[in-house]
Every structure is written in C-alpha cells, then in structure tokens.
# Entry
Amino acid sequence: MNIINQLPKSVANQIAAGEVIQRPSSIIKELIENSIDAKAKNIKIVIKDAGKQSISVIDDGEGMSKEDSINCFNRHATSKLSKTEDLYKVKTMGFRGEALASIAAVTEVILKTRISNNKTGHQVILKDSIITEKKDINFQKGTSITCKNLFYSVPARRNFLKSNNVELRHIIEEFIRSAIANYNLNFILVNEEAEVYNLKGTNLKKRLVSIFKKSYENNLISCEEKYGGITIEGFIGKPENSKKTRGEQYIYVNNRFIKSGYLNHAIINSYEGLIEDKKFPFYVLFISINTDLVDINIHPTKTEIKFEDEKLIYSLIKSSVKKSLEKFNVSPSLNFDADVNFTKNINFLESEIASPSSKKTVYSEKRKDWDKIFENVKIENSDRLLFEKKDTFENENAPVQFLENFIFKQLGEKLLIFNHKNCQQRILFEKYQKSSLNNYSNTQQSLFPQYIEFNSSDFKIIEEILEDISSIGFSIDIFGKNSIVINGIPSGLDDINEKEIIEGFVEEVKNNNLDLKSQKKELILKSFSKKARITNSKNLSHTEMNLIIDRLFACKNPKYSPDGKQNYIELGIDKVENLF
# Structure
C-alpha cells in the first residue's frame, strides 16, 4: 500500500507561507520591499486592527502590466533572477518570488496597478491563492495591494497572534527599519485613520531625528570606515545616552536590515568602559560590500546573512566605532603634551578667584539654612519611610555584615546568612503587590518633575502599562505625542533613578511579549523590586540590618526572592562542626 502522497497545492502554499508570513509585520516588510524595488518615491501603509483586519501598501512605483499582475502571484515568479549565478549578484530587496504567493495563501488580496505607458490599470482579486476576479480599472501610476483577514484560512495561526498593541509594535519596528534604510523616500504610516508617521525624503541624520526624537540631533556621532571594496558609514550614539532598553540598534548590509549578535558584540565591545553594564548604545550602521562576498539566501526572512570573511567585518566595525568615539573626544585619552604642574596652578588660581573668603562665608551660612530646611522635611516625612527608625537596638546577638551583600545573624543554635539585596527585592515586591491589589499607593511628589521622551514603539508599551506603573506609586502624565512626565515616585525608598526604572519596565515587556494583564503586572513588580532599594548604603547599620531581617520574615514567602533566588541559608550546629 502506498503511503506517500503529493500534497494539494493549497496545503503546500500554506506550509510555505508559514516560513515567510509569520505576523502582520511580515506582510508589511515584503510589500515595502517590493515598492522599493519598483523604484517608488512615495510609500503609504494603512492598517486596521493591527493588520489583522486589513493592510494596504500604496506606492507610485513602476507598476505592472496586465500579464505581470496575474503572474506575480505564482510561486517562485520573480523579475530579479533568471539563473543560478544571479543569486550571488542580488542587489534588490526581494529575489525569491515567494512573497506575493505566500501572502495570497493566508489572506484575501486585492491588487491594483498601472504602468506609465498604459492609460488604464488592472485589478486582480484572489482568495485561497485562486484569482476570483480580474478587470481593467482607472488607477494612478504605481501599485496598491490590500490584504484582508490575515490567516482566515489557517485559524490556528491566527490564534497565535499577540494583542493589537504587541502586533502594532512589530509593525512600527518594521516600518522604521525600512524608513531608515531608504531615508531619501517619503513614508506614511496610518493606523485606524490616525497618522503615526509622515516622513519626508531627506538625509540620514534628519531621518533619524524625525523618527526618534529631537534630542538625538546633538547626540549622534558620525561613523565612517573604508577598506578595499567594503564601506562602513552611519551614526552611533554618545555613551551618556545609552539605554537599558534594546531596540535602537540597526545594522544594514547593502541597505538590507540584518540581525547579527556577532557584529553587535563588536559595537558593544567598542564602548567598553564608557557605558554601564547591561546598557545599550544607539547605532545605525550601513555596510556596503560586493555582493559576491556575502550570501543573503540563508533564511526566508532575509535578516540572516553570511560573510565570506566575517572576522574582517567584525574588526572593521570595531575599528570604525572606536575611531569615531576617540575623534569626538568621547573615549578617555591622555594628553602627554600638557604640563601637569601648570594645570594644577591654573586650577588653584581659578578656585581662588571664583571663591574668595567673603563668598565662602556667605555660602556656608546659606548651606546651614538649607540643612535646617531639609532636616525639617525629613522630620515631616519620617512617617512615610518603609522602616520606622528605632533609637536603640539589642547589642546582644547583633548582626554582622560581610562583603557588602551578606548579613550574618545567629538565631538560637543556627547561623543565618542573608543576601540583603535579594531580601530587599522580596520585601518591596510584596509591599507594592499588596498596595496595587488594594488600589492604594503612597506617592511622594518630586521637587523637579522628570520628562522622558520615547520612540513610537516604546511609547505604545508605556500606554499599555501606564495603569500598572501608577498602581505601584508612580505619578505619571502623558506629555506630548510620545512623552511622559514623572511627577512623583513610590514613597519609602532610597534615592532611585526614575528614568532607568521606567525604561527597565519597557525592556521587560518588550522582551517577554506577554498578553495577560496579570502577567505584565507581576513582571513590572519584579523589575521594580530589582532596581529600587530600601537603602543604597554599602555599609549597613545594625538597625538597618535588623529591620531588613524583621521585614523579610513578615513576608508571605521569606525564603525566596521574586526571581526564585534564595534570600538566606541556615547553618545548623552540625553543619558548622563538620566544617572543622
């Protein structure tokens, strides 16, 4: 009995489409690339229901003839290749001839097109990869493709799509990648009849500023390197503007966006000693290389490529970034020509001129006044502290701090060793979890509100989690198109970096792609408890150590941190004796 059967064409098409079309943003990527290959100057994207209901991409490119408008939906039908050797000379964005066939397999497609030589255009409608209608129409030069009801023929795939906010973020990210690479073209993105972006053709720097924010204008460093037939150019960000969140890192090879952890490491390594650990610099780098030295036919999404000499590219990128940082005096450098003694004398003279004895007296008096004011503020707000300070503590059996992170405490015949940072995470997690569940949050107003600006994609996340952030105790208002202002922070904490914490929330949500509100809330609480501190003191007093221990054992789950790490270990007398 024969058991091997030829799959029906419709099933084969859906299987192949799954490799190319993974979500709405995949359709937008493929259609934008087709518009670019068609030499369009204006590209407009219109989406509804985060692309699940419909996606339209309209361009003013070369358009297609009547025959091509029908043949373009055949699998492996392309105008970019004709023989095997062409695979190693690809300069266009698309080349496999899979995109339109894959899109037609999972959506209902309406194509309208006209070439400049023809007076009339053509319309083709497809369902289940089958043409149901074709006719002549009046249409402007160019092409319009509308895709409706994504994955209607594969309900299981549709169920795997994320929430509208998540899918919209992927669409915006795909749009941004294309808009950066083709900064000389006009791009428009419309979501639910609201214009998200309207970008005019310009130079690369102005395009970056218009996509992200105006503050980037003075924080971009030009980057340029040339070696043989390889050219690297673009912009990198100043170290002080690095963020806790990823997402503003772009590498292009021959104008094609790629993902490469190896090349990313070359850039991050160049910033070594200039940025904090787990922070990411901004960069947009374009690598131009002969097509026969790179293979782009690796993955259906075309974001993975292979270089003939990857180590050379790594070295060139690292060299380019380092030179740029040094050129703009960002990297620390030594001036061997400077006279150290002369410099010291100048500093001494300047300090004498700027701070005469009469001014020192006035300043010291003012400082005393300020100290009194702040002392009063501390007294007034003492009831807001998470821990009430005790004037006395038991000297007997006092805890001992060891290597900053650990506290040793004897309890009967047991020795308890605490990791106080993990302990603080558990205490803060349960405290703010309780307040958020009871819709009660204690906020201390900031003397100087902090203003934070985001790109459109990250701002969508902020809007999505704003209610959860507020439930912790942050007082935040939307300020402008993609900005927020922080008016207050949760009370009872030591000095915290509000900007870093908010960016940490965005990074956590972005990396986890959670849909359930309860999951997002717990993720935010975990992130917050890691970054906030009851006390930032490296050397804890006996009172602080005792209060951390007392608060820990008042928690529902004192044994473990929110991430599942142990807060303390017990050493009984038997274990201690066995050490000797």
Observations:
- The chain has four domains: 9-201, 207-327, 334-380, 400-569.
